[in-house]
Amino acid sequence: MSEPVNSSSHYRICPLCEACCGLEIRTEGTRVISIRGAEADAFSQGYICPKGVSLKDLHEDPDRLRQPLIKRDGVFQPASWEQAFEEIERRLLPILHQHGPDSVAASLGNPAAHKISLLAYFPRLARALGSRNVFSASTLDQMPKQLSSGLMYGHWLSIPVPDLPRSDLLVILGANPMVSNGSLWTVPDYRGKARAMRERGGRIIVIDPRKTETAHAADEHLPIRPGGDVFLLLGLLHTLFDEALVRPGRLAEHLAGLDELREAVRPYPPERMAAGCGISAERQRRLARELAGTPRASLYGRIGTCTQRFGTLNSWLIDAINIVCGHLDAEGGAMFPKAAAFAANTQGKPGSGKGISTGRRHSRVSQAPEVFGELPMGCLAEEIETPGEGQVRALITLASNPVLSAPDGPRLSRALDSLDFMLSLDIYLNETTRHADVILPGLSPLEDLHYDMAFPQLSWRNHARFSGPVFKKPEDQPEEWQTLLRLTAMVSGQDWRADVGAIDDAMVADDVRRLAGEHAEAVLRALAPRRGPERLIDLALRSGPYGDRFGLKPGGISLDQVQAAPSGLDLGELQPRVPELLRTPSGKIELAPPSCLADLSAVDAALAAPAPRFSLIGRRDVRSGNSWMHNLPLLAKGPNRCTLLIHPDDAAALSLSEGSQARLHNDQAALTVTIALSADMMPGVLSLPHGWGHDLEGALLSIAADRPGANVNALLSATARDPLSGNAVLNGIAVQLSPLNA
Ligand SMILES: Nc1nc2c(c(=O)[nH]1)N[C@H]1C(S)=C(S)[C@@H](COP(=O)(O)OP(=O)(O)OC[C@H]3O[C@@H](n4cnc5c(=O)[nH]c(N)nc54)[C@H](O)[C@@H]3O)O[C@H]1N2
Ligand SMILES: Nc1nc2c(c(=O)[nH]1)N[C@H]1C(S)=C(S)[C@@H](COP(=O)(O)OP(=O)(O)OC[C@H]3O[C@@H](n4cnc5c(=O)[nH]c(N)nc54)[C@H](O)[C@@H]3O)O[C@H]1N2
Ligand code: SF4
Ligand SMILES: [Mo]
C-alpha cells in the first residue's frame, strides 16, 4: 500500500491498558492515518490489540469533551477555563472552609494509573486538601495484593510477576491475560509468550470458574467454585508442608514466620477443602507436587483472587506457596522487576525499612480502616448519605466512573445528586460526570506525553520508555497536571491565577530540598529547563537505580537518553532482588503476617456456608475497557458483548435459550439480560461483564447509548468487602435467574 505523502510517523505508548504497548502512529496534518504496533519497541516488540487501534476513534470522538462545562439550572453550558475555575472557587471553597477537609472527597479512577499528569500530581492536591475521604479503583481491584505485598516485603508495590520466558510451569488463578493483556503483570503479547513457552515444553494450568480464552490456550483447565480460592490455596500449602515439599532454597535465610505458617495451615488438609473449592483432594495434592517439583515454576493470581471476601488471604497465600517452593525471586519463577524510576522499593536503605501500616484513620460511618492512604470505594455512598460531623458534601472525581464501576451504582448515583458540589476531571459527560457541577476535560492521549510510573514496576522485562505528544494540544487547554496544580493552589489558599509554571517550580524545589539537602540547588540546575512531568521523570530516572546520579555515576541514564532512544531502552531480564528489595522492619520476608493469621478464623465459617443456586462472576472483552470505551466505533461494532453466559444445562433447566431475555435478580436489584449459552461456564455459575448500563439520562455518549447493556454492579452490595484491604467483593455474588415475564 502506498503511504500518503507528507505523512509522518510518531512513537506513542498506549495508555489504555497495563500492557503499555509501543505504537507507531502515522499522521497527515491533523489526521491519524494508521496505528500499528511499533516493531522496534524495546519492550512490546510490535504487539497491539484493537483498543490500541481505537486511539484514532478516541482522538476524533465528537463526544469527547474539549472545553469545560458548567451546570446552570440543571443544564451543562460550555465555559472558558477561567470561568470554570471561578465557579469552583465560588462553590468549593466555602464548603471546605465551613465544614473542613473531610467534607471534600476525591475519587480516582483507573486511567489515572496510566497518566503521569494525574498520578504524579494528584498527591499534591490530596495533601493540600487533607481529606481522609480519598477513594480509588484500587479497592475495586488490586488492593489485597498491595496489602499482602506490603505486609510481606515492606512496600505496597513490591509485587512479583511470572518470569514467563524462563519458566516451565505457570499456574494462573483468576486471571485472563489473553483478553486483559495482563494485570499486575505488564506483559504485552501474553499469547505469543505463552505459545513460545509451551513450544519449548513448558506447561500452563488455568484455574477459573470459566474455561476462558487463556484456559483454551493452556494445557489444562481446572474449574473452581467462585470464592473458593482460599480453600484451594490452603489445601496446597498444607500439602507442601504435609508431604515435606517445602524447599525455600536461597530465600531460607531471609524468611520470618515459616513455623507459624506451617502451624497456621495445619487445619486445612485438601480433603477438607475439596468441597469449598470444587477441586478434588487428589488434584490439589498433585498440583502441590507439580509446583514443588518443577524447578522453574510460579503461581500467578489476579483480579479473580482479589475481588473476594478473602482477597488478602489469597494474595498472601499465593506468594507463600511460591516462597516455600523456592520459586520466589528465582529465574523462571515469580520475580520482582526493577523499575528505572518512581519505584519506592529502589529508594532508601536496601534490605530493611519502616514497612507499611494500615488503619491510621478510619471511615466515619462503618469504621473501615485506611489502607495505602485511602478508604474503600464501597464507603463513598454512605459517607455522602449519612449526616453529621465529617459528612462528605463535595466530591472531586478524576478519571473515575463509579456509577458504573463501583458496587451498587444506583445508590451512589442518588447520593451524588445530594452533594452540594461536584467537580469532575474527565474527558466525557458520562454516567458519573453528569452529576457534576463543573467538568474539566483532559487532553486526548495523542496530545499528551507519556511515561509509565507504575507499570515498569510490574513488567516482564526491565525497560524505560517515553513518548511525546503526537499532536500539539489546543492552545488554551491546560494539561491535566496544570489543572491539578491550579486546584492545589486554590484549596491551599494560594493564588490559582498565578503562572502555573511558577507554582510547579516552587513545589518541585520543596521536594528536591527534602530529597537532596545541600545538593538541592545543583540538582535543580541540572533539571532545568524542564518543567512539569518531564522534570519529575528526569529527576526520578537520574536518582533511580540505573540513573546517572547527576554525574556521580558515569554511564547512568537520564531522560535525555531515554528520549534519544526512539523505541525505549531495554534494561534486561529480571534479576533476583532479595534481600535488597526488602523494606520490612525485620529485614526479612514476613511469611506469617499477624493480620492474615487472624483472618484465617473466618475461613472455617465460610467453608460451612452452602453454595447458592447461581453464583455471578464477571469477564472482560478484548474490545472493551472497563466502563468508558463503548463510545468508540471500532470497539462498539460487532456482536452484543453484554450477555449473560450460562451453562447449557442450567439454561435448559430454566427453559432459556440462546438470545432469550431473562431476569437476573437478587434482594437489591433486577436486570434484564440477554442469554448466551456457553459450555465453558461451570454449572451453577453465570457471567456478566461490568462497565455497561449506558442508558442513564443526561450522559453524552451517542454510540454507547445505542447498545447500553446492563449494569452488573446494580446487583452488588457496597458493603461486601475483604475486611483487611477494604476491597470490594465483585465475584461469586448470589443471584437468581428466571425467564422474563415468568
Ligand atoms: N480488554 C480489556 N482489558 C482489560 C480491561 C478491560 O476491561 N478490557 N480491564 C483492565 C483492568 S482495569 C484490569 S484490573 C485487568 C484485569 O485483568 P485480569 O485479572 O486478567 O482480569 P479478568 O479478565 O477479569 O480475569 C479474571 C478472571 O477471574 C475469573 N474469576 C472470577 N471469579 C473467580 C474466583 O472466585 N476464583 C478464580 N480463581 N477466578 C475467578 C474470571 O472468570 C476471569 O476469567 O484487565 C485490564 N485489561
Ligand atoms: N463488577 C465489576 N466491577 C468492576 C470490575 C469488575 O471486574 N467487575 N473491575 C473493577 C476494576 S479492576 C477497575 S480498575 C474499575 C474501573 O473503573 P473506573 O476507575 O471508574 O474506570 P473506568 O471505568 O475505566 O472509567 C474511566 C473514567 O475516566 C475517564 N477518562 C478516560 N481517560 C481519561 C483521561 O485521560 N483523563 C481524564 N480526566 N479522564 C479520563 C473516562 O471518561 C471514565 O469516566 O472498575 C471496577 N469495577
Ligand atoms: S494491549 Fe491493547 S490496549 Fe493494551 S496497551 Fe497494548 S494496544 Fe493498548
Ligand atoms: Mo482494574
UniProtKB/TrEMBL annotation:
Domain of life the protein comes from: Bacteria
Keywords (alphabetical) are: 4Fe-4S, Iron, Iron-sulfur, Metal-binding, Oxidoreductase
Instruction: Show the SMART domains listed in the entry.
Output: Molybdop_Fe4S4
Q: Which residues form the signal peptide?
A: none
Q: Name one Pfam family in it.
A: Molybdop_Fe4S4
* InterPro entries named among the record's database cross-references: Asp_de-COase-like_dom_sf, MoPterin_dinucl-bd_dom, Mopterin_OxRdtase, Mopterin_OxRdtase_4Fe-4S_dom, Prok_molybdopt-oxidoreductase
Q: Which Gene3D superfamilies match?
A: 2.40.40.20, 3.40.50.740, ADC-like domains (2.20.25.90), Dimethylsulfoxide Reductase, domain 2 (3.40.228.10)
Q: Describe the location of the 4Fe-4S Mo/W bis-MGD-type domain by residue ranges.
A: 7-63
Q: What is this protein called?
A: Molybdopterin-dependent oxidoreductase
* Organism listed in the record: Roseateles aquae
